[in-house]
Amino acid sequence: MKGRTKPFPTAQDDARAAELCIKAPQTESPSYRLAYMDPDFIMRDEARPVRLQLELLKPELIQEAHKIESTIVVFGGTRIPERPEAERRLAEAEAAHSMDPENPDLARGVRIARSILDKCHFYDEARKLGTMVSGYCEDTLPCTFVVITGGGPGIMEAANRGAHDIGAKTIGLNIVLPFEQQPNAYVTPELSFQFHYFAIRKMHFLMRARALVAFPGGYGTLDELFETLTLIQTRKVAPVPVILFGRDFWKRIINFEALVEEGTISPQDIDIFQYADTAEEAFALIRQFYAV
User: What digits encode the pLDDT tens for the residues 198-208?
Assistant: First the structure.
């Protein structure tokens, strides 16, 4: 037929046609639904491989449509806010402790709030790094060095915000959790994704990654960092710059040299990563690696 480009109806065509079918006991049965329009079927345990594939495919196709070729991954803690928020939390903790000065939990809360306040400069550095990386992206086509984060608050918000400050595209990969899963306001809406499977989400972090910058964080940051280190160590992915941001924090939290001395990693495995303490230093390491 004139104007027809494909020999078969599209999935949308069939979905619309299915809605027009005559109502009858047979057509009202769940078994009669098109498989891809049947949520009960798609959610079955046996359909998990299909859901995994869809979760891999959807963000991939959308990023292709936006001509995103490479990304700079920024990991970091959700609990490191801007300074005014950190100051507010400390004031609240101190006020609570003053009402019950013998309470050890409240005393510990004050210590933690002070520690967070000491780390809030990392928010500023992540925001600055997001701007620097995205400024380079905006000067190149197709889009390279796009900032990608877990899409949440704290350090992730800061990096997305830095890109947003100059009107650049920036990606957020949220995951369904009982808490902290709300996308931050600075992720490009068309590039805001939500995942069920941690494994697929981590694949998307690395599929276009040209560098990974790990700011101070908790279990999630450590998980993502060590998966990347393992993949590079075992040559499952090509080497990329892995930058531990905040030398004092990381050296206190993880004793990599002790792993060498214990014989559980090789001396050269420490060369997989580098340290940085400023956004300028981190971005210089990335540009030096790629000679750009």
Answer: 999 999 999 99
